[in-house]
Amino acid sequence: MKNIYSILLAVSAIIMAVSCDDGNDWKAGPQPAANNPGVYFDGSTPRIIELGATAEGVLRSETASVPVKRDEAKASNALQVPVKIRYAASNLTVTETVSFEAGSSSAELKVTIGEFQFGQQYAFAAEIDENYSNPYKNDSGGSSRIDAKVEVVCLLGRATFTPTDYSGSNQPQFIPFEHNIYDNQDGTYTIKNFLYNNAGYNFSFSIDENNNIRPLESNGYHSTDENRWYFYSENNSKESSRIPCYIPGADPDDFVEYLYFYTAENTSSYTAFRMDLSTKTGRMMGYSRYNVSSSGRIAFNFTWE
Known about the structure:
This protein is mainly beta. 8% of the residues lie in helices and 41% in strands.
């Protein structure tokens, strides 16, 4: 026992010595020069940058603009900033200079696309020259490097969804919200981040001859036995692994416990899951349970220009 105790003491001493040595060896990273303008890519830039095109494949603009910023305290003079292109798909051209106007803390990196296909994403990576970037200071969690992709999309329209036709007691009130509806050019459509699930789920569907929405089963939880399309709040512990729903409430404390839409095969009087391309309107009626009331009907009327 005495030998074991001695061994433990020796091991502890070694660990403490190593820990102390590690602490003494730490050195701060190199500090940027005093005149470094602190240039960085805006942290809010999406990692998939969309370029719009018509259904015929004609680009509305061939160039995407990536926001770039600099330290506002050093924005009095015009500035040309070199950019290192670490990678770019063969059909992408990325400018190698960013130009700030005198007095401006904002500029843009230009990315131009050549030939493309719908549904394809084209990657690029760019980095601000180290003599112009400050890794210790920016205003939005940005970075001196950006890794992103460009995708050409056909936007059917930006639709306004208006919650309506509630049933049940002590009804919550949800406010209108907007979703882009994309035409995938293959007879299907997609609404990204549907119902603000914030979990990476897009809602893709086709439309039959009667304008009924036909969800693609690869996107989301679809109970084929019950002909229902489900969404759940993360507050609903039993169903937390399914697609959440965060539609905005007039009261920030209001939320949907769960929500499902009936698909066309169901004969319920709550069935309304359709979109009409000719009138640019649609309706999704569902059954929901809310945090402030019993369950009841809810519908979303939507339209776009």
